[in-house]
Amino acid sequence: MTDARETATPAGPAPVPLLDPREGIPPVTASPEALADVVAAFAAGSGPVAVDAERASGYRYGQRAYLVQLRRAGAGTALIDPTGCPDLSTLGDALSGTEWVLHAATQDLPCLSEIGMHPTSLFDTELAGRLAGFPRVGLGAMVENVLGFALEKGHSAVDWSSRPLPDPWLRYAALDVELLVDLRDALEEELRTQGKLEWALQEFAAIAAAPPPAPRVDPWRRTSGMHKVRRRRQIGVVRELWLARDRAARERDVSPGRVLSDAAIVTAALESPPNAHALAALPGFGHRMGRRQLEQWQSAIDRARALPERELPQPAAAYTGPPPPRAWADKDPAAAARLSAARAAVTALAEELNLPQENLITPDTVRRLCWSPPAEISPAVVSAALAELGARPWQVELTAPLLTVALTVRPADPAPSE
Questions:
Q1: What is the pLDDT of residues 242-258, one digit of tens each?
Q2: How far apart are the first and last CA of the chain?
Q3: SS3 of 324, please?
Q4: One domain for residues 383 and 285
Q5: Can you say how many angstroms the Cα of residue 206 is from the centroid of all Cα atoms in its chain?
Q6: With contact defined as beta carbons under 8 Å apart, do 189 and 183 qualify?
Q7: How many domains does the chain have?
Q8: pTM for this one?
Q9: Do 338 and 407 meet the contact criterion of CB atoms below 8 Å apart?
Q10: Do 83 and 132 belong together in one domain?
């Protein structure tokens, strides 16, 4: 394997602005008839298919797709409106067995799955960039550093649920898949040169085979600023306000933060106003909020206030994994010593291989192994334990030897007193 530290992209000429798709902006596919034509064209195409999706994060409820972009040799580029074509399973079926090329695949796969599109194999250009040691792995940076073109990224955070979509937005969307297959090919060659291609292929296969993410348990606990809320009754107020906000946001199809901010929820929980008039004086519940809305939020607060003690949420959700590492030294000094040794070894190897530590082996895997090591410490047993924790074969091969050594480390003897 070549030394990955020697593969930094050399300075070169200024990137060439990529201003327009090669065939111009394609029409937006928004009817079953137009979709059938797209399906036929992409089924007849050749090679990998570039895929991207645009959501309306911060504007609409949920993370569904409001535009799907595809490009394939022989088929050109297609822009599909999922509001007019909510079921793309025929397109997904037509692309079965075709490699999908995505950038940051785990961000787009859930919303694509909702409309019937599931890859059988994929190539993630962002993850490939991480494994190859690129310091900046956003699509714009990768296209510029690897291919020498500059993408205009000014519309990434717009409201993609707007209709009709303006031409500048559609141009931006089409350009996002314009060079994705070219980027894939260049990164595949870079990974092959570095001896990392097999690692990447294992990672891509794991992403493609992963089941849909399970719904979060107690998602209200992720309210920003939740750490300020200590008492169970106050935590109950956060829960009731969060659930009321979620219902309202779902009904109105808007982002929950546009209905009521997290900061307002936390403030109301800490202050526990006795009535709507007092609630209106709190930040986030100002004069722009109507009386009906204020009463809705006050009702949620009153529900939490009326709950019997046994129904109030606990301060922290149940957790079955290791405690926070900062507590290890007190709870289990031997485990703390193992973790310190393991972290140092993983950091050194990741630097040598020029890839992020979390891609070499996830921090959670290291913590779980060090907190509850196998009864027998040997490379074979540690390898099996890593595999059971979800590590891929390439990760096991590289890290099992050094983690085996780390698991034998013991706490240092106390220094003799003077």
A1: 999 999 999 999 999 99
A2: 51
A3: coil
A4: no
A5: 15
A6: no
A7: 3
A8: 0.91
A9: yes
A10: yes
In three-state secondary structure terms, 70 is: strand
The residue among 355, 372, 386, 268 whose CA lies nearest residue 321 is 372
Look at phi and psi of residue 218 and say left if phi exceeds 0, alpha if psi is from -120 to 50, else beta: left
Please give the angle made by the CA atoms of 101, 49 and 82, to the nearest 5 degrees: 95
DSSP states of 193-239: HHT-HHHHHHHHHHHHHPPPPPPPSSGGGG-TTGGG--SHHHHHHHH
**Of 263, 284, 311, at which residue does a domain stop?**
311
For residues 139 and 37, membership in a common domain is answered with yes
Same domain, 42 and 136: yes
Q: Which long-range contacts (CB under 8 A, 24 or more apart) does 346-349 make?
A: 346/399, 346/402, 346/403, 349/398, 349/399, 349/402
Encoded tokens for 406? 């780390």
Last residue of a domain, one of 209, 231, 246: 209
* Stronger pLDDT, 344 or 155, i.e. the higher one: 344
HSE (side-chain half, CA atoms, 13 Å) at 57: 10
Confidence of residue 289 (pLDDT cuts 50, 70, 90): confident
Q: Is the pLDDT of residue 352 over 70?
A: yes
Query: Is position 123 within any domain?
Result: yes
What is the predicted pLDDT for the residue at 387? 98
Statement to judge: residues 190 and 330 lie in one domain: no
Question: Can you give the pLDDT at residue 7?
Answer: 42
Comparing 378 with 213, the larger pLDDT belongs to: 378
Torsion, Cα of 23, 28, 34, 37 (10° steps): 30
Rounded CA separation 81/26 (Å): 12
Query: How far is Cα 218 from Cα 94, in angstroms, rounded to an integer?
Result: 38
CA-to-CA distance for 246 and 227, rounded, in angstroms?
A: 20
Tokens 């649920």, located at residue: 161
Rounded to an integer, what distance in angstroms lies between the CA atom of residue 371 and that of residue 410?
Answer: 13
How high is the pLDDT of residue 11?
Answer: 53
Confirm if 245 and 265 have CB atoms less than 8 A apart. Answer: yes
Q: Which two tokens stand for residue 329?
A: 């030294």
CA distance 59 to 19: 27
Instruction: Report d(CA 187, CA 150) in Å as an integer.
Output: 17
Q: Containing H/E element for 340?
A: helix 333-353
DSSP 150-190: EE--TTTTS-TT-SSPPHHHHHHHHHHHHSHHHHHHHHHHH
Q: For residue 396, what are the domain limits?
A: 325-406
Q: For residues 303 and 277, what is the distance between their CA atoms, to the nearest angstrom?
A: 17
The pLDDT assigned to 271 comes to 96
CA-based nearest residue to 54, from 125, 103, 122? 103
